[in-house]
Write a structure and sequence with these properties.
The complex is a heterodimer of chains A (about 325) and B (about 375). Chain A is built from twelve helices and 14 strands. Chain A has about 325 residues and is an alpha/beta fold. Chain A has two domains: about 180 residues, 3-Layer(aba) Sandwich (Rossmann fold); about 130 residues, 3-Layer(aba) Sandwich (Rossmann fold). Chain A is globular, with a radius of gyration of 20 Å. Chain B is α/β, with parallel strands linked by helices. Chain B contains 13 helices and seven strands. The chains are: A alpha/beta (about 325), B alpha/beta (about 375).
Chain lengths: ~325, ~375
């Protein structure tokens, strides 16, 4: 098995999905000739042609709106929204149309549309290129929202998202695009042995531990793992849960972990107020109240617009801020 | 016809062409160099029947709303020729994308008028099978469906269902929208997508002069059909109250799209004789004189005159159609009143196509909740 980057893994997953089903289309700005600004669609146009790998006009509402029309005609469009902050021109099509057509049609219509969105900060970008808008979509009934943290999930989850008959927002952590890991890109989803690939909407314990559950997803999984490594040196055992799916939430994996550890810290880059962390804190509190040694704590982006890049290091939750929250979870009732 | 004012090009604007018209308001015919009217008496009679029945559905639904049986209704009164003329130009394999006012198009696509009322009575958000009818569901957020039409047409191209010369296979798409929607970004984006991909879609704009209260002047400084030119495809204006002209131009535009010659825009110049919806009070924004000026251009009256004068129909036929309309109205009314409310748990159906644990959990909770409200012993 070769080591591949996340970008290459998603590329390989797209290739497998396009091989498996001629109805799968890739569309978006610069996805054809250029191969996407992050090269995630590199080479697809050469191999599948411009009928299936469509360089669209520069209009995001048009990308999603026309993808809806293509889905109504029986296609399975995989749209690239070039950057997180460019999804908002398409917000209306996503929230008022894409998410609802199965519902509005009483199940007669299906919307197997995937929106791939490179998201999150840490790459020194200009405004609108570092945002984490996932909560808007997780808040919208009818959408599925998932995110991969590394190459293996990038490869398998993109194929699962494309196979889904529901609309899936597929968030790719852009600062992890160049992370490498071993992935069996020679095997397609259809050929993978039964049970060998985790379901799309399952969370995963990526590092077992006993003292605190740290829930993270996408780019912050690495942050949480770094924090766990450092905490271990101080004798604290952090269990890291990679949420993977934001809607639906795999509540069971999170609460089972919290029942073991008694403490929970949620980490994400998105602003903390009304973010995924708030929902997880509420759900964990509702179902694990008597197991908790401390309140569920959130470590998120500050409630400010994503700042200029020279400040992003201070904005982004890092392992120190995670460890600070872990400390608070331990000192609750004392110094709290 | 009154045109919105538009800026003069230095040196003088080109002359405004007259809208395509084949039937004058007085019922006499006009020769047109490019478009010929349908002349088959049986077809003309069937269109007359369509017009009258659609109007009857519309007036009955308005009455049902007034009587509290519908929550809302958006009347198509006055726009019947634009809708039936274009709707009857569609082939079975074509696909139409309506707004929420296309009751005449829905009729042409075989949607049961009782199903048409379901949205307005509040028993569903949809109401029919879009694939079976070749008619997408009514879309309420203005202009969004126009992009869906462009995308659907891109799918038709990828299916190789354009330009084969097989009339049973070549497929066109028609996107309905109004003068108000022409201001929406989605409509402009749809024009761009259709144009650059040469997609087989006809953009059918019913310019009924009003976006709720706002006149054309607030949406555009040029006649709307001229927008098409800037996007690189042809546009024309047709007398939207002339079913012969609407049908002829729409059929030609659809044929053109099916042949692979790309998109086209039709602006059907018409007038919304009724309110925007039954919640609206048009006396706040328009003069009775304006409505009165449009009354003699009524699409049904002129067509009836034409049928009589050409001998395509006689008074007995017209009376027969009126009787059929009464019958239909009674059926629509009865169907509306008999429409069952959905079960309380229906709100949990079809949120997703595939199983979803959170919806399932909430459904289970709600079912328990409903059961807990039942008095002990089971009988309420």
């Amino acid at each position: 098995m070769a080591k591949v980057t996340l970008a290459a893994a998603v590329n390989a997953g797209l290739r497998r999905a396009m091989d498996a089903d001629p109805k799968v289309l890739v569309m978006g700005e610069d996805v054809g000739q250029l191969g996407g600004v992050f090269r995630v669609t590199d080479g697809l146009r050469k191999d599948f042609g411009d009928d299936r790998v469509i360089d669209t006009p520069l209009a995001e509402s048009g990308i999603v709106g026309s993808a809806i029309g293509l889905a109504l005609r029986g296609y399975r469009p995989v749209c690239e929204i070039q950057f997180d902050g460019f999804v908002f021109p398409a917000f209306n099509q996503i929230v008022s149309q894409l998410s609802r057509l199965a519902y509005r049609s009483e199940g007669r219509l299906r919307m197997p549309v995937v929106l791939r969105i490179p998201y999150g900060g840490g790459i020194g970008a200009v405004e609108h290129h570092s945002e984490s808008p996932e909560a808007y979509f997780a808040h919208t009934p009818g959408l599925r929202v998932v995110t991969c943290a590394g190459p293996a999930d990038g490869y398998w989850m993109i194929q699962q998202a494309i196979a889904s008959d529901d609309p899936v927002l597929f968030f790719e952590p852009k600062r992890r695009y160049w992370d490498k890991a071993e992935v069996d890109t020679a095997t397609s989803l259809a050929d993978a042995p039964a049970g060998s690939v985790e379901p799309l909407h399952a969370a995963r314990v990526v590092r077992p531990g006993t003292d605190v559950t740290v829930v993270a997803y996408g780019p912050t999984v690495r942050v949480a793992l770094d924090a766990a490594e450092l905490a271990a040196q101080e004798g604290r055992s952090l269990e890291v849960v990679d949420l993977r799916s934001l809607a639906p939430l795999d509540e069971g994996t999170v609460t089972a972990s919290v029942r073991r550890t008694g403490r929970c810290v949620v980490v994400h880059e998105a602003p903390t107020f009304l973010g995924l962390g708030a929902e997880i804190a509420a759900r964990v509190t509702e179902s694990c109240f008597h197991h908790l040694e401390a309140p569920v704590l959130r470590v998120g982006g500050y409630d400010v617009p994503y700042p200029a890049s020279r400040l992003e290091e201070a904005y982004l939750p890092d392992h120190d801020r995670v460890l600070e929250a872990v400390d608070r979870a331990f000192t609750f009732g004392g110094a709290y | 016809m009154s045109y919105p004012p538009h800026p003069e090009v230095p040196g003088g604007s080109p002359p405004e062409p007259e809208p395509v018209q084949l039937l004058r308001p007085d019922g006499t015919t006009v020769e047109h160099p490019q478009y010929a009217p349908e002349t088959d008496p049986a077809v003309l009679r069937s269109w007359y029947r369509d017009l009258v029945l659609v109007r009857r559905i519309d007036t009955e639904a308005t009455a049902l709303q007034r009587q509290g049986q519908l929550g809302l209704w958006a009347p198509c009164l006055g726009q019947e020729a634009a809708q039936v003329g274009s709707g009857r130009a569609l082939a079975p394999q074509d696909h139409a994308f309506p707004t929420y006012r296309e009751h005449g198009v829905a009729w042409c696509r075989g949607v049961d008028p009782v199903d048409l009322l379901r949205i307005w009575r509040g028993t569903t958000l949809g109401g029919w099978d879009p694939a079976r009818r070749g008619l997408h569901l009514y879309t309420i957020v203005i202009g969004t469906q126009v992009l869906h039409a462009a995308g659907y047409a891109m799918g038709v191209q990828r299916d190789g269902a354009v330009g084969t010369g097989d009339p049973g296979r070549d497929t066109a798409v028609i996107a309905y929208f109004g003068d108000g929607a022409s201001s929406q970004g989605d409509v402009s984006e749809a024009f761009t997508y259709a144009s650059v991909f040469n997609a087989p879609v006809v953009f059918f704009c019913q310019n009924n002069q009003l976006a709720i209260s706002e006149p054309n002047e607030r949406q555009t400084r040029v006649p709307l059909y001229q927008r098409a030119r800037g996007f690189g495809f042809p546009g024309l204006r047709v007398d939207g109250n002339d079913i012969l002209a609407v049908h002829a131009v729409t059929r030609a535009a659809l044929d053109r799209a099916r042949a692979g010659e790309g998109p086209m825009m039709i602006e059907a110049f018409t007038y919304r004789m009724g309110a925007h919806t039954t919640s609206d009070d048009p006396t706040r924004y328009r003069q009775a004189a304006e409505v009165d000026a449009w009354r003699p251009r009524d699409p049904i009256t002129r067509f009836a005159t034409h049928l009589r004068s050409t001998g395509a129909a006689d008074d007995a036929f017209l009376a027969e159609v009126d009787a059929a309309a009464d019958e239909l109205a009674a059926r629509v009314r009865a169907g509306c009143l008999a429409m069952p409310d959905p079960a309380g748990t229906a709100m949990f159906d079809h949120v997703y196509a595939e199983p979803h644990p959170m919806v399932a959990a909430e459904r289970a909770w709600h079912e328990d909740w409903e059961r807990s409200l039942e008095p002990a012993g089971g009988e309420r």
